[in-house]
Amino acid sequence: PRPALPVLYRLERLAYRHAALISTLTEGMRQRIITKGTPPEKVVIFPPRTNDELFKVGDSDDGCSFRAEHGLEGKFVVVHSGNMGVKQGLDVMLEAAAKLREVKHIAFLLVGDGARKSQLQARAAALQLDNLQFLPLQPEQKFMSMLAATDLALITQQRTVSDIAFPSKTVTTFSAGCPILASVNKNSEVARVVES
């Protein structure tokens, strides 16, 4: 794959040079494009949009149906929803679940899929984390109920993840009114948005 990189970079520069307008999601991404020689006036931010239905999360059942379906009644529910890849650094969630295994009213959910899911499942099984459940991606209505049941949403990234990575779940989680705990590089775009 390495020999292809120079060709891909040339293609990127060519695309930037001939584009009438370049849109991106965050200021960090915009600055990265500008540093590659693109005139600043050509690079605009189109912030991530959210589904308006997210603002109504909790209006229907406050997550009761989701809690009942997954044995979470009376629990403080900590959720990571989305990609389970390398850059998410989800081992930190398993470590937290291991340290809190004796606190019976806290439940951890890893919801979604990704390249590291099977490794995380194997590690959770080895650690005998009965306070942690893995769930597949949820259909929209169940996803909304899950958000309503979420007491704390986790956004995790490896420290090495730069300012150009911005998971869409950040906006989704804010829109649904979920409290967020972000374990991210303090110079990342996610950290900047959470702080502001």
Any overview of this molecule?
- With about 200 residues, the chain is of the alpha/beta class.
- Helix content is about 35%, strand content about 20%.
- It has a 5-stranded parallel sheet, with helices on both faces. A two-stranded parallel ribbon has the order 1-2.
- Helix 4 (about 90-100) links the parallel strand 3 (about 75-85) and strand 4.
Summary keywords:
two-stranded parallel ribbon, 196 residues, globular, 18% strand, alpha/beta, 36% helix
Distance between the termini: 39 Å
Structural class of the secondary structure composition? alpha/beta
- Total helices: the number is 8
Largest sheet: 5 strands, parallel
Instruction: Tell me the helix content.
Output: 25-40%
How much of the residues is beta strand, in percent?
15-25%
Produce a short descriptive summary.
The protein has eight helices and seven strands. The protein has helices at 5-18, 27-34, 64-69, 91-99, 117-126, 140-149, 169-175, 189-195; strands spanning 22-24, 43-45, 76-83, 106-113, 132-135, 152-156, 180-183. It has a five-stranded parallel β-sheet, sandwiched between helices. A two-stranded parallel sheet has the order 1-2.
